[in-house]
Amino acid sequence: MPIPAGCVIWPTRQGAPDSYLGLMNIPLLAGTVSTVLFASSMLPMLFKAVRTKDLASYSLSNITLTNIANAVHSFYVFDLPAGPVWLLHTFYVVTSALMLVWCLRYRKAPTGTPATETPATRGHLRPMSAAAIGHK
């Protein structure tokens, strides 16, 4: 069938990479670089939490909400084509879950609350031992 007059068919670049670098396109490169930067920015926090087991400065409610948000956001992220966002989100899911587990595991009783105190004895004076007063 002949091509109608006035129609121009331009050649296509089938199979050619859509890239300025010849390796990957700019949005994919930016996503990969930002994924590495975001993930590496969280590593010092994780290493410190593992090393010191001191998570007192972290809000349990914030970490819990972050885990809930990550679970809901996973439905969106994993519906997207596989790419750097999958890696970044997976990293966030794992790290926030670890922080929640560690926060619950290494929580300390509030300062000034003896472990032997119960709701029935709270606020009551206890006799001090002779050693605590300084008597021999």
**How far is it from the N-terminal to the C-terminal residue, by CA?**
114 Å
Q: Return the average pLDDT rounded to an integer.
A: 76
Coarse structural class: mainly alpha
| Secondary structure: helix percent | 40-55%
Apparent shape? elongated
Q: How many E-type strands?
A: 0
> Which residues sit in consecutive blocks of at least 5 with pLDDT less than 50?
none
Strand proportion: under 5%
Number of helices: 4
Order of helices and strands: HHHH
Biggest sheet features: none
Cα-based radius of gyration, to the nearest Å: 29 Å
Question: What would you note in describing this structure?
Answer:
This protein is mostly helical and 136 residues long. The protein is 52% helix and 0% strand. It contains four helices and no strands. The chain has helices at 26-52, 60-77, 84-105, 130-133.
The gist of it:
The chain is mainly alpha-helical and 136 residues long.
List keywords for this structure.
136 residues; 4 helices; 52% helix; 0% strand; elongated
Task: Describe the secondary structure blueprint for this structure.
Elements: H1 26-52, H2 60-77, H3 84-105, H4 130-133
Helix pairs in contact: 1-3, 2-3
